[in-house]
């Protein structure tokens, strides 16, 4: 690279470009999925003021964690290295296997969550909006999960394009619904003084769901590689800028949606939505007099859950198959077929059993995400020599680690 071109790259790395904004939207779109449809139920259960504090915490939590993960990927010697390569370089093959295993089981339970979510959404829509009798749960869940899986298996490329295209219309519709709910806001929650004795506990127990709903770690590896390819050693400035922009967008959009929903419902109604194990949009559709929300809410919920299912299904199947293939002499195609059957059957069983979606998100999904996204990069900054120049400030490391341990301890506490 010539001196002039190197100087141009350095100047560009400090300025926002259209490509930066596109990446910011990609990170934002990765995070915006079915998780935010359940976020208001838990985050708003403690009232308005705990939600304000959670909103304040969410942006720095999200930015510092994803910024640290991006720097971890950039710390690998080979510019083509992804996160798995970086883990193997820093912690050896055993460490890489452990992280790969953890990453798979951060994704796989989400498939089960979406199997339950799609069944409950359609069942609620058929009963409350269409006035139809409930179909036996084993049959309804089997048809829905089977149909979505067939779409993935026989139209993978089409489904990936479709889900990518669906993100932004979903964002627009959710934003429109947030605005539409403003006349229904009940401001009595704002005027009610918080219960200071229970406030810390309410915030603490909601942190795992915030982590899950704002998570866009699946795309961070490829995002970091691309910034390194374009900007070389200057890539860290870009990853910091873009992850910060994505965190800010998530704060504004997601928390506006959460606040709008929470202010239009009472804590008792949020608790009822949790008890019914449905998304907040399905609950709004069942209780709101507006035909727009009655029909649009469940359709948006269905679309969000289905689009999230496609990506997580592919990721979990490929990850599990890869892990088995590295330890087995069986043909790859047989392993892939066996894994596909395993994932579909377990998702179907979970949908029939109908466990609490919020509990599954917190206990299983958030646990692995926290370990990889919050704790691994901070640990590496302290212990891995090549991460020294990628260290964030000490207060940032402490804040990220504290949030990570808070999320893990909240999961453990909620499990008992």
TrEMBL record:
Transmembrane annotation, as ranges: 21-41, 47-65, 98-118, 138-155, 162-182, 202-220, 241-265, 292-317, 338-357, 363-381, 393-413
Subcellular location(s) per record: Cell inner membrane
Keywords: Cell inner membrane, Cell membrane, Membrane, Transmembrane, Transmembrane helix, Transport
Keyword Cell membrane applies: yes
Domain of life assignment: Bacteria
UniProt-listed Pfam families: Trp_Tyr_perm
Membrane topology: Multi-pass membrane protein
PANTHER family in UniProt: SERINE TRANSPORTER, SERINE TRANSPORTER SDAC
Name of this protein: Serine transporter
Species in which this protein is naturally found: Vibrio marisflavi CECT 7928
């Amino acid at each position: 690279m010539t001196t002039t071109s190197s100087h141009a790259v350095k100047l560009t790395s400090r300025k926002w470009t259209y490509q930066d904004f596109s990446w910011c939207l990609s990170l934002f779109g990765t995070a915006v999925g079915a998780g935010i449809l359940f976020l208001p139920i838990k985050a708003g259960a403690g009232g308005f003021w705990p939600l304000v504090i959670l909103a304040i915490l969410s942006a720095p939590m999200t930015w510092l964690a994803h910024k640290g993960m991006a720097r971890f990927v950039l710390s690998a010697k080979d510019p083509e290295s992804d996160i798995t390569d970086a883990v193997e370089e820093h912690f050896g093959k055993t460490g890489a296997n452990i992280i790969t295993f953890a990453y798979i089981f951060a994704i796989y339970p989400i498939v089960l969550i979406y199997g339950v979510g799609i069944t409950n959404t359609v069942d609620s829509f058929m009963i409350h909006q269409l006035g139809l009798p409930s179909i036996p749960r084993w049959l309804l869940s089997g048809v829905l999960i089977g149909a979505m899986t067939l779409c993935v298996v026989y139209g993978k490329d089409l489904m990936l394009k479709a889900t990518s295209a669906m993100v932004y219309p979903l964002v627009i519709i959710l934003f429109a619904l947030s605005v539409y709910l403003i006349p229904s806001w009940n401001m009595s929650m704002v005027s009610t003084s918080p219960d200071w004795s229970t406030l810390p506990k309410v915030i603490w127990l909601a942190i795992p769901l915030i982590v899950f709903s704002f998570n866009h770690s699946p795309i961070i590896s490829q995002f970091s590689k691309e910034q390194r390819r374009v900007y070389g050693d200057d890539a860290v400035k870009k990853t910091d800028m873009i992850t910060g922009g994505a965190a800010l967008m998530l704060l504004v959009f997601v928390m506006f949606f959460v606040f709008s929903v929470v202010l239009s419902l009472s804590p008792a109604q949020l608790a009822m939505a949790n008890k019914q194990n449905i998304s907040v949009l399905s609950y709004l559709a069942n209780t709101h007099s507006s035909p727009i929300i009655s029909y649009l809410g469940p359709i948006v919920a269905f679309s969000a859950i289905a689009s999230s299912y496609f990506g997580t299904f592919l990721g979990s199947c490929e990850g599990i198959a890869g892990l088995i293939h590295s330890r087995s002499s069986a043909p790859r195609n047989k392993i892939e077929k066996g894994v596909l059957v395993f994932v579909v059957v377990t998702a179907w069983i979970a949908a029939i059993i109908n466990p609490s979606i919020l509990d599954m998100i917190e206990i299983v999904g958030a646990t692995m995400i926290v370990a990889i996204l919050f704790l691994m990069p901070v640990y590496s900054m302290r212990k891995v020599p090549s991460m020294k120049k990628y260290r964030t400030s000490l207060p940032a490391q402490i804040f990220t680690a504290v949030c990570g341990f808070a999320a893990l301890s909240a999961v453990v506490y909620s499990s008992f």
